């Protein structure tokens, strides 16, 4: 895995969650549950069996980083 290329793609490429939610074919994921504001789906490259990702449907950046 090329970490530099991966980081660059994550910073400049399309947001994979937005692409997945708009139905872009290369970004399909298996949806487990969803409501109006959130979606839970299986990780396509899970590090553990059954790993689930949960995301807000609204595009939010730096959600993990705290406020400055
Ligand atoms: Zn997004």
Automatic annotation (TrEMBL):
<dbReference type="GO" id="GO:0003824">
    <property type="term" value="F:catalytic activity"/>
</dbReference>
<protein>
    <recommendedName>
        <fullName>HIT domain-containing protein</fullName>
    </recommendedName>
</protein>
<feature type="domain" description="HIT">
    <location>
        <begin position="16"/>
        <end position="68"/>
    </location>
</feature>
<dbReference type="InterPro" id="IPR011146">
    <property type="entry name" value="HIT-like"/>
</dbReference>
<dbReference type="Pfam" id="PF01230">
    <property type="entry name" value="HIT"/>
</dbReference>
<dbReference type="InterPro" id="IPR036265">
    <property type="entry name" value="HIT-like_sf"/>
</dbReference>
